[in-house]
Specification:
Oligomer: single chain
Distance between the termini: 63 Å
Bound molecules: 5'-deoxyadenosine, iron/sulfur cluster
Low-confidence stretches: 1-5, 449-456
Shape: globular
Strand content: 15-25%
Strand order of the largest sheet: 2-1-3-4-5-6
Largest sheet: 6 strands, parallel
Structural class: alpha/beta
Number of helices: 14
Radius of gyration: 23 Å
């Protein structure tokens, strides 16, 4: 990382982030590096001299959004010739110089592994050496991120505990762009958690493509349950969350750890992807539906009330109508609190891109819509069952200006609102759930509802 304050000379920079929480954390690192190099962060591209896009390529529509936005910036750059346009992240890693072909007005393409070189690359572009493409294949190092202390303001600190993925699910481009799994040594994770706590963050969200295989590359090996224990012991730590879990590595030991550690929240995101074993096999997921369900049964029995969410893909190549019905049946039986449901999107270079028997587009659209509708009904029923119960809301923000409401999450990761103002932000408030509005819980502080009950 460069720390020469002369480099940016107070130039304005706008960072636009697409995709997952990993990218949000990467954008915080970009922001930290560029502020360290003398740039000033601004909220809109229009006010910025340097525009950085931190991109995603997990599905085609994510990419099309970025190329669409890049297209809009062509005329903007013609009007303001000094503007520098830098495209980074997963799409940059995947497409490399092809980004310049589609959007020749781009000044810099930097892949995920070139992240830490960004300030130097921008300097070169400013010195007239652009356009530049830097897409190293060698995975970026797992460095201490304590120095990259700029975080999104608020209550939640994103902390990346590992990067990359070894799983090569047949549809997924992530291992191709993010490289193999690398775990951050536990002492660096703890150092980061301590600094987030010292900076007043009330929740740490541990990130990795597959946190359950954390530590397999460390010597001595420290598994994810042990890491959770260490984080749980940090003085002053608030809530602890993590994502994403892979069902094949979701161990009984992890379930016991979630059940026993007081700061670890009762929510697990466990992507199922499909309900038919033959589709799971062809996706290279490494589990059957029965194995998945038995892991969930174990989780639900040891962590009562645990919030459970998932990811599902509709229309994977070769998915027959009866395979699809198995996914429907899995959603009906498992009854997730929420599910992200995606239309299958072919990603170049993946194993699935070489499969024939593509599902016709209109069938994918229909199956996707059916699953969405089904899950909506289940989510509504499940959230309705929370009314009358006691819970705890960590207040994160004012809900809407002048609404008199604040908003946050319950421990099982439902959104809840309650009356109050910004003085409540960062407080964990015991509440009773008194109603539901669409997918948002309406809560009242417990003392308040106790008073109401006593008076009625
Ligand atoms: N098509 C559709 N969905 C995908 N996902 C990953 N790759 C694809 C793809 N090619 C989904 C998976 C994963 C989530 C992050 O994105 O469900 O869990
Ligand atoms: Fe992609 Fe599978 Fe790795 Fe998740 S576990 S990032 S879906 S390859």
């Amino acid at each position: 990382m460069t720390s020469n304050k002369e480099e940016g000379r107070g130039d304005t920079v706008h960072i636009a982030t697409y995709g997952c929480q990993m990218n949000r954390r990467d954008s915080e690192i970009i922001s930290s590096m560029l502020v360290g190099a003398g740039y000033r962060i601004v909220d809109s591209a229009e006010e910025a001299r340097v525009i950085v896009f931190n991109t995603c390529c997990v599905r085609e529509n994510a990419e099309e959004r970025v190329y669409g936005r890049l297209g809009q910036l062509k005329s903007f750059k013609e009007l303001r010739p000094g503007t520098i346009l830098a495209v980074g992240g997963c799409m940059a890693q995947k497409d490399g110089a092809a980004v310049l072909k589609r959007a020749p007005w781009t000044d810099l393409v930097f892949g995920v592994h070139a992240l830490y070189a960004l300030p130097d690359l921008l300097e070169k572009v400013r010195a007239g050496q652009g356009p530049l493409v830097s897409v190293p294949e060698h995975p970026r190092p797992m460095v201490s991120q304590s120095g990259f202390c700029r975080r999104e303001p608020g209550v939640r600190a994103w902390i990346s505990v590992m990067e990359g993925c070894n799983n090569f699910c047949a549809y997924c481009v992530v291992p191709h762009v993010r490289g193999p799994e690398r775990s951050k040594p536990p002492e660096l994770v703890i150092e980061e958690v301590r600094s987030a706590v010292a900076d007043g963050y009330k929740e740490v969200f541990l990130l990795g493509q597959n946190v359950n295989s954390y530590g397999a590359d460390l010597a001595p090996r420290t598994g994810f349950p042990k890491l959770l224990e260490l984080v749980n012991e940090v003085d002053g730590v608030g809530r602890i969350r993590f994502t994403t879990s892979h069902p094949k590595d979701f161990s009984p030991e992890l379930v016991d750890t979630i059940a026993s550690l007081d700061h670890v929240c009762e929510h697990v995101h466990l992507p199922l992807q499909a309900g038919a074993d033959r589709v799971l096999e062809s996706m290279n997921r490494g589990y059957t539906l029965d194995e998945y369900v038995s892991r969930i049964e174990m989780l639900r029995s040891k962590v009562p009330g645990v919030g459970l969410t998932t990811d599902i893909i509709a229309g994977f190549p070769g998915e027959t109508e009866s395979d699809f019905q198995r996914t429907v049946c899995a959603l009906e039986t498992i009854r997730y609190d929420g599910a992200y449901i995606f239309k299958y999107s072919t990603r170049p270079g993946t194993a699935a891109s070489r499969l024939d028997r593509a599902v016709p587009h209109e069938t994918v659209v229909r199956r996707h819509a059916e699953l969405l509708e089904l899950q909506k009904t289940i989510s509504k029923e499940k959230i309705g069952a929370a009314v009358g119960k006691e819970d705890e809301v960590l207040v994160e923000e004012v809900s809407r200006r002048d609404s008199g409401l604040v908003k946050g999450h319950t421990r099982d990761y439902r959104v809840a609102v309650l009356e109050g103002d910004d003085s409540l932000i960062g407080k964990a408030i015991p509440v009773r759930i008194v109603g539901v509005d669409k997918f948002t819980l309406q809560a009242e502080p417990l003392q308040c509802s106790a008073v109401l009950t006593a008076g009625s």
